[in-house]
C-alpha cells in the first residue's frame, strides 16, 4: 500500500494524518487508531510527508484523492509540455468556477485541484513515466 492509498484507507475510518513541519500527526476517534496504523504511518513517513506537502492545510484529503485519480490518466508519455490536468474533463467551463472541477470559487483552481495537480505531477515524475524529449 502506497502513501496515498494509506491516507485514503485511514480517512475511510475517520482517521486523519496531517503534516506539522517534519512531523506527522495521526488523529481519529478514541480507540480507532491502532498500533498497526501507527506502524504503517511510520513505515511510510517520508512518502507521506512528500504527499502531504502538496496539500494546503485545511484541504480535505478525500477532495484531493478523487481529483488526483481522475488526473492520473491524463498524463502524456512525453515529458513536456504537460496538458491542462482537470478533475472533471467532461464538465464545460463556466465563469466563476474552478477550471478543473467546476466548484464555484473565485479563483482559477480550487485548493483541492491545486493539490491534486501537484501530487499527480510529482508522482509521475518520481515514477519516471515520462520519456525524455
Ligand atoms: Zn477544483
Question: Which terms summarize this structure?
Answer:
133 residues, mainly alpha, Arc Repressor Mutant, subunit A, two-stranded antiparallel sheet, 2 strands, 43% helix, 8% strand, globular, binds zinc ion
Stretches where pLDDT is under 50 for at least 5 consecutive residues are none
DSSP strand content: 5-15%
Q: Shape, please? A: globular
Q: What is the CA-atom radius of gyration, in angstroms?
A: 16 Å
- Taking strands numbered 1, 2, ... along the chain, how are they ordered across the largest sheet? 1-2
| Topology pattern, helix = H, strand = E | HEEHHHH
Average pLDDT: 92
Main sheet? Answer: 2 strands, antiparallel
Secondary structure tally: strands: 2
The percent of residues in helical segments reads: 40-55%
Number of helices: 5
List the domain count as a whole number.
Answer: 2
Structural class, from secondary structure content?
A: mainly alpha
Distance between the termini: 32 Å
Bound molecules: zinc ion
Amino acid at each position: 500500500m502506497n502513501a496515498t492509498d494509506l491516507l485514503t484507507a485511514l480517512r475511510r475510518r475517520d482517521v486523519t494524518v496531517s503534516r506539522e513541519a517534519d512531523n506527522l500527526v495521526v488523529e481519529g476517534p478514541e480507540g480507532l487508531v491502532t498500533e498497526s496504523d501507527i506502524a504503517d504511518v511510520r513505515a511510510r513517513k517520508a512518502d507521506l510527508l512528500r504527499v502531504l506537502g502538496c496539500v494546503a492545510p485545511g484541504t480535505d484529503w478525500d477532495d484531493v484523492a478523487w481529483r488526483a485519480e481522475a488526473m492520473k490518466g491524463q498524463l502524456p508519455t512525453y515529458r513536456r509540455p504537460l496538458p491542462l490536468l482537470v478533475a472533471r474533463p467532461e464538465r464545460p467551463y463556466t465563469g466563476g468556477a474552478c477550471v478543473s472541477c467546476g466548484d464555484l470559487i473565485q479563483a482559477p483552481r480550487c485548493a483541492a485541484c491545486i493539490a491534486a495537480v501537484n501530487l499527480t505531477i510529482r508522482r509521475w515524475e518520481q515514477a519516471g513515466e515520462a520519456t525524455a524529449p
